[in-house]
Amino acid sequence: KRELEDFFYVHGGAFIIGFGDSARGTQLMKSKDFIMVTFNYRLGIHGFLCLGTEDVPGNAGMKDQVALLRWVKDNIANFRR
Questions:
Q1: pLDDT digit string (tens) for 60-81?
Q2: What is this structure's pTM?
Q3: Which residues contact 34 (CB under 8 A, 6 or more apart)?
Q4: Domain residue limits at 43
């Protein structure tokens, strides 16, 4: 059995709008088998406001994306069974 490739989709929207469900991958899946990973992250002021304080250090949206990539690295093998 061959190992499936991983396909990550990070939605656009200038860090203001968008959602992970905007790409479904159905057209791609017709020609190739893979594991598709989509996700949501904080946007707008909730994700990118930076006050330089301990409570609001900034870039929470980017930190959400990094957390997802770490989670996938640690857990994606469980989805290949």
A1: 999 999 999 999 999 988 877 6
A2: 0.74
A3: 4, 5, 6, 7, 25, 28
A4: 5-80
